[in-house]
Amino acid sequence: MEQIPASLGDGDRARMGARAAETARRLAGQDVAAVALTWVDVSGITRTKTVPVNRLEHAAAWGVGMSPVFDVYLLDDSIVSGRHIGGPVGDLRLHPVIDRVVPMAALPGWAHAPAVRFAQDGAVHPLDARALLYREVVRLGEAGWEAKAAFEIEWAVSAGDGDAFVPAARGPAYGMTRITELSGYLRELLSALAGSGVTVLQLHPEYAAGQFEVSVAAEDPIGAADTAVLVRETVRAVTLRHGMRASFSPKVEADAVGNGGHVHLSLWRRGAVDGPANAMTGGAGPCGMSAHGEAFAAGILRRLPALLAIGAPAVASYLRLVPSHWAGAFACWGPENREAALRFVTGVRGERDEAANLEVKCFDPAANPYLALAALLAAGRDGLAAGRTLPEPVGVDPATLTDDERAARGIAPLPASLGEAVAAFERDDVLRDALGEAVADTVSAVRRGEAELLAGATPEEVAAATRWRH
Questions:
Q1: pTM recorded for the entire structure
Q2: How far is 162 from 26, CA to CA, in rounded Å?
Q3: What is the mean pLDDT of residues 235-254?
Q4: 347-353: long-range contacts (C-beta < 8 A, 24 or more apart)?
Q5: CATH: 3.40.190.10, 3.90.930.12, 3.10.20.70, 3.40.50.720. Which one for 10-126?
Q6: Which of 27, 68, 319, 343 could form an SS bridge with 251, CB 3.0 to 4.6 Å?
């Protein structure tokens, strides 16, 4: 994990420039002509500035200019203003992260580099989500812990290039027929991901028409967020090359199952005698968790309503987040329970030391992956500090219980609208303090702006407005 300084000094610039010069020579030898520097805005859209490969050294040392106003863009590219960001005045510098520069096999001649944004005086931008996640990783490390994370990427494939969604594969859910229908496309996708250094664990058809999912290997949280962006842009590029479009929207069609953006997360003790030890197993807590693993999970569970403003950030998110659709619409946890917002993945006997982890099922692909992981780590870290414990696990679909049964077990529905989630976020001092005033205020401004933008829209209109934006 490359260090992100709070402020760039001359030594940092010299070091970053020298490393970029080496990388540029390597890329040129691989026929790479341009490097796309990307960041993800508060609305969850990946934005970019591009430099020719021979300008990578200068970009690494001195950055590429861009406006801070992108932090208050809405999903339709309209702009709101927050107390900290808004208007045409100001400039930031976008610096590529050289450790993560990779040629994009899906876009020959191009490389991808996640970027960190700094002010012109060298101070890190307070709304830079990658730097924010780095800060949370450091805070967790100072307490003796590290985390591993991975995003599941779900998308739906549409035939043709029109704005209407026309499923490009019509076979049954999870059926081999869909692989047969799009075998060439999927084979090229796997090859492109491997060519960009992504370790794919599995690829399969999902429930909705034309829907697929790819799972990748867990890594450190910043790497996991970088990989999520790279995977999505690779999927998008390969899909377009095959004359189709990929939608990562939480709700591609109003009457169909939406795309999830499930987050897998585990807590590991640093400095164990035999290497890092997974706190999600090997203990006397529920489902074999250690006391620390339980506290980490309990911290996340406790803050799920507020976390939705980060992890389910679109109006369309709440068309997806409904009971009995495997979306995790209730604030509860359970081992291998796909209707619980927090599923505990035990792993098979013999592999649990490595595989046991939490799956946050209520998040979706409209989330900024850096911001989502930063908020999850902050919630888990608070649980660790407070020594929280989990309630009894839920082993059924919570929707099948009566209201009285759910109340007796402390099972509450998660917010049913973006407005409800924002209200919960604004009441949550732990998350707001961890993210910082500038981030918290801007998240609220953007979420309220998007809620107002789509106020009164029908579910079909919400789905259409969101379908091709993320």
A1: 0.97
A2: 39
A3: 97
A4: 347/281, 352/278, 352/281, 352/282, 352/288, 353/277, 353/278, 353/281, 353/282
A5: 3.10.20.70
A6: 319
